[in-house]
Amino acid sequence: MKSMLPICRFVFIAAWLAWAIGSLDVREANGQDGVKLIVLGVAQDAGFPQAACRKDCCADAWKDATLRRHVTCVAIVDEASGQRWLFDCTPDFPQQVRMLDEAFPSKKPGTALDGILLTHAHIGHYAGLIHLGREVIGANSVPVYAMPRMGKFLKSNGPWSQLVSLNNISINGLENETSIQLNDQITVTPFQVPHRDEFSETVGFKIKGPNQTAVFLPDIDKWSKWNQKIEEVVRGCDVAYLDGTFFDNGEIPGRDMSLIPHPFVSESIARFSSLEKDERSKIRFIHFNHTNPVLQPNHPAKSRIERAGMSVASEGEIIDL
């Protein structure tokens, strides 16, 4: 047995060194300083699996937690200053702040968020604000950036209005196509898009870092309904997270999908086929309904997107801005 001890020690030390070197490689690949975008969720407002869904699309995800996906959200982090901003505040807020803490730890107390930027007033995009109230975190004046109708909605309707009156959040106004400076490294420009605007406007965001620009556009009715060409938006950025809610028409049996309009991924594939290869490679679909087959492991729908030169966004992916 004694003769085995040096060998065991050597194996242990070698394994530890391999782990340490591997960890360093990952950190270097992600970068130590700079502005980063991290994807914290890729599902539609209801998440995946969806409440009360007993169909095949959600069956495996109910059994296997590794297949589950959070509601669509991204965060921007300035590693040099330690500042962090969320884009949309979802029902999965607790898990997503935890993901953010694990990827980019903060020494600040509470949420350690320097702001939350909202796209619109559909439940998956703002309902997580409840966690900032006195029943949970009891936050202190977290800046919430919102368009005029969105801001008025929060101020005028409970329980959100209580967050304002108790100074848990502070509403900062946004204007269409008017840029704001989050800090000296990051500029954000909201741009209004057509959507089911029952309670607020709907916007996407152009997020400009020191080196690259990202577009975050999780919700829009149809590309053809917009007075801008989505192709030009793609050409004007380095990565575009675009609405991929439904893969194709008829995805929800018994529902008139014209009442919940989104650009089907199949439509987007056809439309973007005219783009140059380098431009198509910027596109990453996001915001998947629980019925969308791209959520299923190894489904041909995902391969179809990749063959067309585009991608599916993944939770936890990080890009440099």
Automatic annotation (TrEMBL):
<dbReference type="InterPro" id="IPR036866">
    <property type="entry name" value="RibonucZ/Hydroxyglut_hydro"/>
</dbReference>
<protein>
    <submittedName>
        <fullName>Coenzyme PQQ synthesis protein B</fullName>
    </submittedName>
</protein>
<dbReference type="Pfam" id="PF12706">
    <property type="entry name" value="Lactamase_B_2"/>
</dbReference>
<feature type="domain" description="Metallo-beta-lactamase">
    <location>
        <begin position="84"/>
        <end position="256"/>
    </location>
</feature>
<dbReference type="InterPro" id="IPR001279">
    <property type="entry name" value="Metallo-B-lactamas"/>
</dbReference>
